[in-house]
Design a protein that fits this description.
32% of the residues lie in helices and 30% in strands. With 94 residues, it is an alpha+beta fold.
């Protein structure tokens, strides 16, 4: 009987602690709703119409995009995700 009382008290404390944590996290999230976020940089790739991104991967100093179409051979463009600036263009021949 004593073990049951201890278990009930412990579970009650856990429920109160969990509810308090949940309320605090929700309140903290709601308080940042009106805060403006930093603008996300956008990259202008200057690729011809009809080009499409077929793959992308993170590389050491940027983001590599594999492009196809647009009347040009397949190519890879590496951009800097922080600034949106094009770092490298590589044309692939078949």
């Amino acid at each position: 009987m004593r073990i049951l009382k201890v278990a009930v008290v412990v579970m009650g404390v856990l429920i109160v602690a969990g509810t308090t944590t949940l309320v605090v996290l929700i309140a903290r999230g709601l308080s940042t709703l009106g805060t403006p976020r930093a603008a996300t940089p956008q990259a202008a790739l200057d690729e011809p119409a009809g080009s499409r991104i077929v793959a992308m991967t993170r590389v050491a100093n940027g983001l590599a995009l594999a492009l196809q179409g647009g009347g040009e051979p397949d190519r890879v463009v590496v951009i800097d995700p922080a600034s949106g600036r094009v770092l490298l263009r590589v044309g692939l021949s078949r």
